[in-house]
Write a structure and sequence with these properties.
The chain is mainly α. The protein has three helices and no strands.
Length: 98
């Protein structure tokens, strides 16, 4: 069974015209158009939510540390308290190596 030919389409349109009347056909067409538009909006919204969720999972997923790659050390500088002299980070490293 293939696609309907021109004769079948004319017959279907004539039956619809007889059943619903000329005034109701535009209303039916508008209703079908609104339904299709709402369906497209809903599917695009769902796909946007799925993409956003996939990006959140990718961002929030913890990364495994690579073996053999040295991690950079973060030097912690502290503020001198009352009575202490400020020291430079170089002085701390020299004191650690001595």
């Amino acid at each position: 069974m293939g696609t309907p030919g021109p004769l079948e389409l004319i017959l279907i349109f004539a039956v619809v015209l007889l059943i619903f009347g000329a005034k109701r056909i535009p209303e039916i067409a508008r209703g079908i158009g609104k339904g299709i538009r709402e369906f497209k909006d809903a599917t695009s919204e769902i796909s946007r939510e799925l993409e956003a969720e996939a990006q959140d999972r990718q961002i929030n997923q913890p990364q495994q540390p690579q073996q053999g790659a040295p991690q950079p050390r973060q030097s912690q500088q502290r503020e001198p308290t009352a009575g202490e002299e400020p020291t430079s980070p170089d002085a701390d490293q020299k004191a650690e190596t001595s």
